[in-house]
Amino acid sequence: MVQASKSPGPAAESSSRCCAGLEDLLSPRLFKALSDPRRLQLFVRLAGEGCACTVGQLADGSGVDLSVVSRHLAVLREAGVISCEKRGKEVWCTVQTGEVAGILRDLADALDACCPPGAAGEPAAH
Amino acid sequence: MVQASKSPGPAAESSSRCCAGLEDLLSPRLFKALSDPRRLQLFVRLAGEGCACTVGQLADGSGVDLSVVSRHLAVLREAGVISCEKRGKEVWCTVQTGEVAGILRDLADALDACCPPGAAGEPAAH
DNA sequence: CGTATAATTGCATCATGGTGCAAGCAAGCA
DNA sequence: TGCTTGCTTGCACCATGATGCAATTATACG
Questions:
Q1: Phi, psi at A48, each rounded to 5°
Q2: CATH topology of domain A27-112
Q3: Is strand D in 7 Å reach of the CB of B64?
């Protein structure tokens, strides 16, 4: 929303020779979802519990209101970190371990393929 | 700061059998650093430029004040995403591709080793 | 020295986001 | 139908964070 559409920008963008697909892999939404300690706590808790909990179960012992947990889970869900399924009155949340792990690996691969040592821009002595 | 020290908590934490080291790998600081679109833009730009730029170079064409860029770079540096080296008057920033990729891979591995399908908590039909 | 350049930091302002309470909605049950 | 439970959403409040301008520090140059 802020970064518009790739934003050609006034400055020279000609040097995008490497790290081509990096930008597409870096999703602010994903990182924003994992940037909050409370959400991270819920994430770990959800993973530790066997990757499936109801909102109420996660709220128990979290120290915050159930509405807060509900909102945090919504953020995680919109980021694709977890998925939720309604069964009766309850909503069961599941960690998307495979999906998230895949994204992180793609990102790691893109980074490794990026910026070869002594590629360019590095000043020798100046 | 918020999550205290592992927080034994009132609720049952007995089910931390899996995803043991997951919590230690999930650093709010790292994700927070990558959660801002502007910082992500600087990150991509820095990677695309050959992984080495001065603060001024990054500020050019970024559309924001140099002080803003400086602050964003500080956040990235404190998160270990980049490293900065002062040479003369200028500060050269470098993307820590290997470090970041390593962290992401460790996290991906931990997630894959986590939550085996049909482990527990999953309701069959209820 | 004094000046210019590069970058950081202080300060004020504004936007975003986390939180709790209460109301609303959906689903099961008597 | 009325009631209870599980969860979501609206609203207000407060903390955090992003931004721009100005002042400060550090380094190079004359």
A1: -70, -25
A2: Arc Repressor Mutant, subunit A (1.10.10)
A3: yes
Asked whether strand D has any atom less than 7 Å from the CB of A22, the reply is no
User: Does the beta-carbon distance from A9 to B44 stay under 8 Å?
Assistant: no
Is the C-beta atom of A66 closer than 7 angstroms to strand D?
Answer: yes
Q: Which residue in A10, A49, A63 is closest to B121 by CB distance?
A: A49
Amino acid at the residue A19: C
Hey, where are the domains in chain A?
A: 27-112
| Interval B32-90: pLDDT, tens | 999 999 999 999 999 987 768 999 999 998 999 999 999 999 999 999 999 999 999 99
